[in-house]
Specification:
Layout lengths: L3 E5 L5 E5 L2 E4 H5 L2 H5 L7 H14 L6 H23 L7 H15 L7 H9 L5
Length: 129
């Protein structure tokens, strides 16, 4: 069974230990490197998938035949996406790419920003024009 423990390390930082492996807590919540790499920041992909399923069924508790038809339709969509990916067709919408690149550029300038509160407000209100 997994054993979790949290304690202060000899260097003074909080550490989470899991089955003998230590992870500094800051590495668990600090996602700066993800932003610099333009990696996804949230679970938008899974949320979008679940939203699409709900929209496909147009109800929260479909009957068994409606469920089977919806799953069949979803399999068709997923096959199409796989074929597009295999052939190099870009599925990511440009606005999300642009926003990720804008965020990456903003995060790179963190060290030179004198007003950290202003910087955080700008990050919170980042938009693609």
């Amino acid at each position: 069974m997994a054993q979790y423990s949290m304690y202060k390390s000899h260097q003074g930082g909080n550490v989470l230990a899991y089955n003998g492996h230590e992870v500094p807590l800051q590495k668990l919540w600090n996602r700066t490197n993800d932003a610099l790499a333009c990696a996804p920041k949230t679970t938008n992909a899974s949320e979008g998938y679940h939203h699409a399923l709900n929209a496909m069924f147009s109800c929260h508790h479909p009957g068994v035949w409606k469920l089977f038809q919806g799953i069949k339709n979803d399999i068709g969509v997923q096959r199409l996406v796989a074929v597009q990916a295999r052939n190099g067709i870009e599925a990511t919408r440009n606005k999300y790419k642009a926003l990720a690149e804008k965020l990456s550029a903003k995060v790179q300038g963190y060290g030179t920003e004198p007003d950290k509160l202003r910087y955080l407000r700008q990050i919170a209100h980042l938009q693609v024009s």
